[in-house]
Amino acid sequence: MTMCTMVAAWMPAVGGRLISLSFSDILIIVLYFVMVLGIGIYLKSYANTSSDFFMAGREMTAWVAGLSFLSANLGALELMGWAASTYQYGILAAHFYWIAAFPSMVFLGLVMMPFYYISKTHSVPGYLRLRYNESTRALSGISFAFMTVLMSGINMYAMAIVMKVVLGWNIHFSIWVSSLTVAVYVTLGGLYSAIFNEVLQFFLIWLGVLAVPILGMIEAGGWSGLVRKIHERVQSDDYVHLWRTLGTFSGNPMGVHWTGILFGLGGVIAFGYWTTDFLVVQRAMAAKDLRSAQFAPIIASYFKMIVPLIVILPGLLGLAVLPYHLVPESAAGPGMHSYNEVLPLMLARYCGPGLLGLGVTALIAGFMSGMAGNVSAFATVWTYDIYQPYIRKKATDAHYVLVGRWCTIVGVILSIGTAYFVTQFKSIMDYMQALVSFFIAPLFGTVIIGMMWRRATPKGGFWGLLAGTGSSIAMYTLVKIHPAYLSVIALSPNAKDMAENLYRALWSWIICVVVTIVVSLFTRPKPASELTGLVYGFTTIPSERTLPLYKRPIFWAGGVAIFFVALQWMFW
Amino acid sequence: MSGKTHMLPVWFFIGILLTIYGFIILTTSMVDFSQPTTVVLAKYHPGIFGGILLLLIGGGYTFWFWPGRQKHN
Prior knowledge:
By secondary structure, chain A is mainly α. Chain A has a single domain (23-538, 548-570), classed as Sodium/glucose cotransporter (Up-down Bundle). Helix content of chain A is 70%, strand content 0%. In chain A, α11 crosses α15 (312-321). The model of chain A is unreliable at 1-15 (pLDDT under 50). Chain B has one domain (9-64). Chain B has helices at residues 10-31, 46-64. In chain B, α1 runs antiparallel to α2. Chain B is rod-shaped, with a radius of gyration of 16 Å. The chains are: A mainly alpha, B mainly alpha. At the A-B interface, α2, α9, α10 and α16 of A face α1 and α2 of B.
């Protein structure tokens, strides 16, 4: 292979793309990369202690922590994926932004954050070490570190594919340019860089995609026009009702029942993710004080309630106004478009030069901050929960910062490796995403029991987590080998694949909790002196009675609850 | 830690970037004003409105969080 061929193989391609970029679009994209690198270089001088590098000095305001908390989850994969799911399933996809966000985010802020913050732990596995024992921390820490790097790689692969389909960019170019950019700014500025860029991404995503719902609703003729057009397209009203069609598994496009949505999705999956996934919890922990840490997820929940405007609505608008039908990825042949392309197609439909560049930058920013978030969380968990306790216990603070920086680079390299691995074995993505789901619900069970029940013992915590995780893996494997067992797990012969995820999470959480309780009752608990600051009853939580009502987190939590109920009623 | 109190807030960086973006988008849209693009609903000139919005938000953040004016991040 000649040098020219090698270089050409890496350059962005120009053929076979959905969107053509003008000079101003490319300028906007380039300026984004310049800005994020500049932020990383600027913040390097502020990230020289472990507290600064891993926890952003624990000095973020509630707004910065809150927007970063939301943005860490609001990656481009999620934006495009849920717009695609909306095109496929209708407004039911909004449940993943409403019932699957507000209750758990508010619960984190009001109930769990005091224990995370007061214990001064650096991570969720770190909390498990304090509350239970090293074994529980190791199980959680190693699995988290492994999964977060895999998810970072999947993120990178998905971005490269999107850029190839949408812009015609070479996959190697997309993977390496964005990975190296992330590696530079996170290695230099640590969590400061990751948070700053996540807040920047929040603005870019909103401003980049806003033209789609505004112009789309004008074109569709308002909500009534949108509903009419969707009805003409799919000959069904099921696509615009949130709860009405969930009385039976077969009565809605998603094939789920309201119990699965309420208890599976809104219960254990949502609580498991928002309250124990260190990628998001780390952002709230970086707040400057307990009240800011409590406000962070509550602020985020307000914005989460309105994210459907730029994710769900574009999906519905695509269903209504696009002159052709989109198809599943596996069925997309030449000249056809898959569900996943609905958001880029809508951007191309309404956004001219300049605005289009902003929209594409928003997608790129979403992918890159997703990777940055995973890598910074990986560096923190690896350094504090694996390297420090098991490899080198007593070292200087500067040493751990250096380990963190190297960890960031290694994390990016592993992510790149995962991305290339996935290019060879595409179906592995489904397995990797299932891997994440194995741990989420049981981890929530272990953490919440630990926080609420002083009688929970170290052995109970470990065996409950292991049993919950093992049962989740077993149920998943069983359904893969014998699909008929889906009806057993989801309690209905009409259940579809989505229902399996929801009910499996519910069962694994129940098993985790039951095993934790039973084993705890037969084993010795920690003495009260070792539970101070870790569990309800042994933790002094500062009173808010002296504060005016509008300064109390519970007041604003009540506000988002009212907002949530109003949305459910509006779209019933 | 001693330099922390002088750290530029994230809002300043956001302001700078959005101001530049607003300028680019507004300029591009005005240059293309008389040349219709192929996008749907181009008659509403979303680029001009979008550019103005970005300039307002970006300019506001840049002004409010300019070094020396801002109190905290």
